[in-house]
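Please check what follows.
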Amino acid sequence: MYYFVSDRIRKFLLLAFGIYFYSKWNVNATFLLLFSVTFNFGLARFLSQLSGKKRKVLFVFAISSNLLYLGVFKYFIFVWDLYSDLRISVGLSELVWKPEILLPIGISFYTFHNISYLIEVYDKRIFPCKNFFTFAIYDLFFPLLLLGPIERPGNLIPQIESKQTITKEKIWNGVSLFMWGVFIKSTIADPFSRYVETHAQSFHSLELGILWIVAPVIAFQVYADFFGYSLCAMGLAEMMGFQLMNNFKRPFFSSNPSEFWSKWHISLSTWLRDYVYIKLGGNRHGFLRENLNLMIVWFLAGIWHGAGYGFLIWGVYLGLCLVFYRSLKHYGFVKETSHIQSILGIFFTFYSFSLGLLLFRIQSPKETKLILENLTHFPKISSIPLMILMTILPLLVFDLWQEWKKTDRPDFFISSKPFSFLVVFFFLFLWFSLFSPFGKQDFFYFQF
């Protein structure tokens, strides 16, 4: 339908399918999303017409409203549980009643989408959309609606406003990106998810030292899962003539935490950099203030990922890793020209990130101690299954190939060579047949 109708009809199709796509999950949540779209469209229009103090007051109201919207649906239950735990700790009775609030899927992503739009309008880097449908498509663009990337308005809105040029190369490249995304999701993320659930169901009854193995499995699970979705989003968009930003750039080859976060979930890390870190002063007020700003940013990153003890600890942990590395670099302990340090850096960066992901699974502060106790032991060699190494092989080969080519975006040689496409497709289908668990498994980031 999309390929054979006029550009104007394409816009209506994009909007209609965005609404349909989201409503397949929950119709009630779709009304909340449409309210958010209408509310922010109107706010941006009013914001562009005001000046002086009124403009600033409306901007503060606009940002606060979006944060309140996110807070009510995502964090109210967590705050309620904290209050209940506090009552118990001081000897009061536990709260019997607990509110039930729906957590709309993708709410963190589309709320940040709207906040970046309002900030760009307020800073006069873009003009607000005059056409409601253009802004609605920006907010409801279905390839990235659920899990991002958190696309910038300055990149996506001009593409929506212009006529899309669809070529054979774009279609082939889009199909190959989508196919690769589904492949790594179904043959790496899904079986790894089952392995993690089996071996880390409870921190109370774990084999000693097993977390040294479970941690990197979680890392590859999350990477294949989220990178897979990002590739699907990029592929779908490219088939329709759009180009989304690349969200991952071989992060596991990073030699330090700073480099890692410039290559992992790029849309979120650059969002936090531009709209929080730089607004706080960045590195313009001395080394101590720079590190404090980093800790604030990563505390917020932890909260953004989820409402729970583990996410708060995870955010602080990541902030400390960055501060520690920057301190080593600041005082001359790290030499970027040293190949040995780079190789060791890749190992330590990967494992520090992997161990941090264990914190996602923490349900109470007491479980942190259980994790640390398990990590004081080393696992048995027999505990490392060969199947894990075989499963991640295609992803490692692809990333090594892309690293050798130094690509900025995932790049396939098959975009203009259908025969090569069929050969690769057959190989991936064969691998999928051997290793996929053939079961429905939600995307990991749906919970955020």
Notes: The radius of gyration is 23 Å. The mean pLDDT is 85. The chain is about 65% helix and 0% strand. The chain has two domains: 7-161, 168-256+334-447.
